[in-house]
Every structure is written in C-alpha cells, then in structure tokens.
Amino acid sequence: MTVTLNAYNVLAARCAAEFLEMFETIDKGNLIYKIDVFLSSSIFRTWKDSIIVLQTTKSLLPWSENLKVINHCVDSIAARLPSTRRRSTGHTPTTGRNSHPMAALTRTGTA
User: Fold this and answer.
1) Rounded to an integer, what distance in angstroms lies between the CA atom of residue 52 and that of residue 8?
2) pTM for the structure as a whole
3) What are the CA-CA distances from residue 83 to residues 45, 76, 79, 86, 87 (Å)?
4) Taking CA 67 as the corner, what is the angle to CA 61 and CA 72, rounded to the nearest 5 degrees?
C-alpha cells in the first residue's frame, strides 16, 4: 500500500504514528522517522505548506502541541519574514531612524 504524504495529511499521519509508537528504536526506518524527515526537508521549507500544517494543528490538539509541530510551523514561517525583509530594505522593521510611526511626530515636537 502506498500513502502519499502532503501538507494536508502529514500531521494526521505523524500523530497516528506517535499513537502507534512507531519509533525508530523499534524498527529502523520506521514511520515516525520518515515523517519527521519529510516535515523538515519538505514541509517546513515553504510558506504555504507550513501554514497549511499549522491550520491542521487545531483539529489535532493536544497531539500537535505535544509533538511541537505548532512551534516548528511558527518557527518556519517566522524564519522567512526577517530574511526577506532584510534583503529588500537592508534593515529589519524595528531598526532605522524612522521605523516607528510616531518617530516623525516626536522629532518635530508635535507629539
């Protein structure tokens, strides 16, 4: 039987593998290991897939929380934000003289 994993079903498969205790220590190349490799090498490398998996975590609580999938999704998404911003502007949104919306008002003394 062949199962095709994607962003929509990978978390359910990972939770099921955890429930069935399909650990690497029991059998080499077991399902948990294969899913974890798929998550890190494919899913967590893209915005779209990370967001899709994050959306599926809600229906699989508390498993998704215990497996730290929510943290991995958020980290994956957050990792793309500053690097994209730095490349386009040369600084992060919180740096620079005029980064705060009230900066101009404060400098002119009108605030």
Assistant:
1) 7
2) 0.67
3) 14, 12, 7, 5, 6
4) 100
